[in-house]
Specification:
By secondary structure, the chain is mostly helical. Helices cover 76% and strands 0% of the residues.
Length: 262
């Protein structure tokens, strides 16, 4: 009888795990190209994470149960956050804070993002990319004094770092300095044609500057680089509306809703 219960329990865990994997993959569509790579082609750190998705590898039952409870209660984002952490068993405390901050920022939870970036700063005060993230999160809440301090420190420490320069441009965008932000972001996009956030924010800036055709081209590149970025699709919908193309606009809005269903 005990073996029957164990078998049923394992079956339920596998079923719950498959369900969470499907939801996680849907929410992480922008990284689908990496998920399709053969395990042997992945670096060791990524291969160990890929093993967590292997249905033959036993999960941590307590953490998985917690994630599934969140999922059943309709708290999909929280469930996905926990599941992501399960997938990163070797993540350092510093990276854990940064990654949680980025997830909060992505979903508009800017105060929570700031808390995570500040916690990361305590662990590594000179991590320039974390400082850039902190600046953009503060900028999103119009906390420009704190944002300026963080980005200035990052620039002083590593003035050539791409993420730092992107953070500086995003902060200019948040301040409404669209022309200056566009110049900075254009240079970054030319130097790194695969930088998704730079293309996305440049598209946003061009839209606000009324340069609709340019914004369309740049934002279409942004969704190629970040197919899970629902905000990019929403902006494309607005741009097609401005081009009097309601059919394409409706298509873009539909994509945005599908990606932002939680």
């Amino acid at each position: 009888m005990g073996s029957v219960r164990t078998s049923i329990g394992c079956t339920n865990v596998r079923r719950e795990r498959r369900l969470l994997r499907r939801r996680w993959r849907s929410l992480m569509a922008d990284s689908s190209s990496e998920q399709d790579r053969p395990r042997d082609d992945l670096p060791e750190s990524e291969a160990s994470q890929a093993d967590i998705l292997d249905p033959d590898v036993p999960p941590n039952p307590k953490r998985l149960a917690r994630a599934f409870r969140q999922f059943r209660e309709g708290r999909g984002r929280e469930a996905v956050d926990i599941y992501r952490d399960i997938m990163r068993p070797y993540e350092t405390p510093l990276l854990a804070h940064i990654n949680r901050g980025l997830r909060h920022y992505e979903h508009g939870r800017h105060e929570s993002a700031i808390e995570e970036f500040l916690a990361a700063e305590k662990l590594d005060p000179e991590n320039v990319e974390n400082l850039a993230h902190l600046a953009t999160a503060c900028g999103a809440l119009s906390q420009f004094g704190e944002a300026d301090e963080a980005i200035s420190t990052a620039i002083r420490l590593d003035p050539l770092n791409v993420e730092v320069r992107v953070g500086e441009a995003i902060l200019a965008f948040r301040k409404g300095l669209y022309a200056a932000a566009e110049v900075q972001l254009k240079a970054i996009c030319i130097r790194d044609s695969s930088h998704g956030p730079a293309h996305f924010y440049r598209g946003e800036v061009l839209n606000r500057l009324g340069r609709v055709d340019e914004a369309l081209k740049v934002m279409e590149r942004a969704v190629q680089l970040q197919p899970g970025n629902w905000r990019a699709y929403h902006t494309l919908g607005m741009l097609f509306d401005r081009k009097d193309d309601p059919e394409r606009a409706s298509e873009m809005y539909r994509h945005a809703r599908e990606l932002n269903y939680l």
